[in-house]
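I am going through a labmate's work and have reached the protein record below. What it holds is a sequence and that sequence's fold in C-alpha cell form. Please read both lines and tell me whether the C-alpha cells look consistent with the sequence. Do not assume that whoever made the record got everything right. Thanks in advance; the entry in question is below.
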Amino acid sequence: MDEQPELNLHVLGELTATRNGAVVDLGGRRQRAVLAALAMQRDQVVPADRLVDCVWGDHPPANATGALQAYVSHLRRRLEPDATARQRGGVIARAGPGYVLRLPTAAVDAWAFEAAVEAAAGQAPGDAVCTLETALRTWRGPAYADYAGEAWAEVEAARLTELRGLARERLLATRLELGEAPLVIGDLEALVKEDPLREERWRLLTLALYRAHRQAAALAALRRAREVLAEELGVDPGPALRALEAEVLAQSPDLDGPRPAPTTRPATLVPRPRTPDGLVDRDRELALLRTRLDELVEGTSGCLLFEGPAGIGKTRLLEEVRKLAVAAGVWVRSARSSALEQDFAWGVVRQLFGAGAEEALAHDERFAVLRGLCELTTQLAEEAPFVLCVDDVQRCDEASLQFLAYLVRRLEGLPVLVVLAMRTGEPHHADDLAELVADETVTVVRPAPLTEEGTAALVTDRLGRGADAFVTTCHRMTSGNPLLLRQLLRALADQGVPPDAAHVDTVRAVGSRAIASLVTLRLRRMPAGATTVARAVAMLGPTADLLSVSDLAQLPEEDVAAALDLLARSEILVDGHPLDFVNPLVRDAIHADVPAGERALLVERLNRRLKSSSSRADHAGAQRQ
C-alpha cells in the first residue's frame, strides 16, 4: 500500500479517479460503468458483450459495439491525457474479444486493500495493526456505491464488503493480542450491532470484556448472543462460543492475554512496528517513548504524563506506548478512567491488576491498602519489567489516584514505567492530581496542535494530495486538532469531496456537521447554564461580550462569567478577549445545535437589542443637534 502511482482509481465508495492528486472527469454513469466492470475483473479480459450487458442491461442500443468503443476511447483520453492517440491503450488495453484494465495493484484501492489484508495475516501483531488500520482507511463508502443494486456489480461489492468485515475483526483481534482489551470493547460492540449473527464478533467481544476484568459483562454478552441466534435463526451458539462460555465460567487461565517471559531482558527483540499512517508531527514524543522503553528494559523506572485538550492525540500516543512495549517484549497493564465509574473506589486499580489486587484491597485502612498495592507492583516488577498505562486520569476515582501518586514517589529501583494521559479543562480531584503532576520525577509532555505540513500529510493520507488552499482551510477550521481534523476528513471522504481548490467552501459546511456530536457531548457534561451561554456567544458572533451574552441568555453576569470561564477551561472558547471559539467548526456546530424554538427566541431578543441600540443612538443624535 506504500506505492503511490501517478494514476489512482477509487472504487471503495463512489467510482472516482485521481491523477497526481487532481480529480479526473470520468464522464457519465454508463461510461464509468465500463471502467467499474474492468476493475472488478482485475487483470482479466472482459468480453465486449459482457461490458455491453453491464452498461445497458436488457436494453442495448442498436449499435452497442460502436457506443462501447466510444466510451473506451473517451476513458483512455481522460486517464492518459499526456499520451498521443497511438500511445493510448496502456491503461485500458484491447485484448482478444474484449478489454483489460492494466494498472499496478497499488493504483486501485480495492486491489491494494485486498493485498494489505492478505499481507497482514503473515505480519507481527504490531505491524499487522498498522497495515490493517491503513487499509481500512481507504474505504469512503460502500464498494462500487454508484452501482448498488445492479446485478453485475452485486457479487463483487458483496465480496469486498465481506472482506472489509473480516479485516475489521482481524484488526480488533490483533489489538486484543497486544493487550488493548479495554480500548476495543466499544469498537466490538459496534461490530456486533452491525451484524449480530456473526459469532466471531460475539467471541471477540466476550474475550475483550473478560480480559478487561468484566466477567459479569462477558457472561451477559454470551447470553445476548444465545438469545439473538435463537430468535433470528432458531439455533444454539456454535462450538467456539460454547467453549468460551465454559472457560469464562471456569476462569480459565487460557483466556488471559499473552505474558512476556519472566526475564529482565528479552533474549530476542521483536522489531518495532513502523509509525502508522496518520500519526504526524509526533517525532519528539515517539522518540521519548522509545528512549523510556529502552531504559525500562535496562531496569530504569519513570513516569510520563501526556497532558492537553480533547482531541490533541493523548490516547493515540498511549496506543503507541502499548504497541512499542509489546514489540519490545514488555508486558503492559492498561486502564481507562470513566466518569461513570468515578465514584467507585479502586475502579482503575482493579482494571490494572484484576483479581491480583483483591488481597491488598481487603484491608480496612487506606494506607494499608496503598502499601499492599505497592508491594504487589514490586512483586510483578521482579518477574519482568512492565508498563502501567492510564488514560483520562482526570476522571480517575480518588482512591486509585491516591495509589498512582503514592506509587510514582516509590518507583526508584523498580523496572516500571507509568504512562498517564490527562485531558485539561475537566473537573478532577484537584489535590491528588496536582500532587501527581507536580512530582519532580514526572515528565509532563504537552503535544502541540498539528502544523500545516502535518495537516497536509493527513489530507493526502485520507483524500489524496490536497491543493494548498484546501489544506490551509482544513488547518484553519480545526486549529490543528488531530481529532477534529480526522473527523472532518472522514466526513469529506464519505461524501467524495476531492481536496482541490474548487471545494474549499465545502470544508466548513461538512466539518461543522462532522464534529457536532463531539461538541454537543462535551457541552452535555457541563451545567445547563454553560450550554445556554455557548449558544448565546454563537448567535452573537464577533459582537459577543459579557454584557451582551448576559442580556441574550437572560442570566446574571456572575453566572455568565463563571460559565465563560468553564467553557474556556474546556477548550470550547478561547481564554481571553474578545469572546471567540477555539475554531470555526466548534462555533458552527454549536450554532447549528440550537433548537428551532430557542433559536427563534434568541433571534427575537437580538432584534430587540438592535432596535434598542438604534433608538438610543438616534435619541443621542437628536439631543446633540
The radius of gyration is 29 Å. The chain is about 55% helix and 10% strand. The longest strand covers residues 416-423. Confidence is low (pLDDT under 50) at residues 1-5, 260-277.
